[in-house]
Amino acid sequence: MSEMMFVFEQVDELVGHLRRLQRPCVEMLKPGVAPFEVEDAVAAAGPAPEDLASMYGRHDGVDLPEGRTLGDGHVVPGYYWMPIAEAAEHYRGLAGIWPASWFPILTDGGGGYLAVICDAASEDYGAVVEILPGEDEPEIAFDSASMMLATAIRCFAEGAYRLKGGFLDEDYDQAEQIADSLNGRRGEIEPGEFI
Prior knowledge:
By secondary structure, the protein is α+β, with helices and mostly antiparallel strands.
């Protein structure tokens, strides 16, 4: 099975969990885009990792229409998946704030992001970094976009991600244990190491 098909299946499994919980974001998922569209959008940050291009090949994020809340668009607790064009706009808006090789893909709408490291020369190429406002040190949250999906799938399957009060909620301790068990590179990262 190709990596693209593997990631397609991961996205489908994640969407299945969201559908089971009757999350509005399922109906807001955009059709996938061609790999060259992802590569073009990400090019200023560096080469797009294959799993990132595949993720956007399955769905181009969540199209959050006016009048819907951010919570309606969440695909994991606290974050919605930006369409590639929106992600590119955020990337341009963050120029000079964080390393140029970090490309945002999910946002909390309040300055928090999950971004993919696109510096092909880095040993952390492809890892997903969590950047939170007010936090001095960003962290590698997932080894790759594919492992971010795998972690979310396991969190939904084991109840670490669940519905509470009409919104996605997280058992932080359980989710951390799952993430730690699946991702070997988790921990603080020094932004100055990147271009």
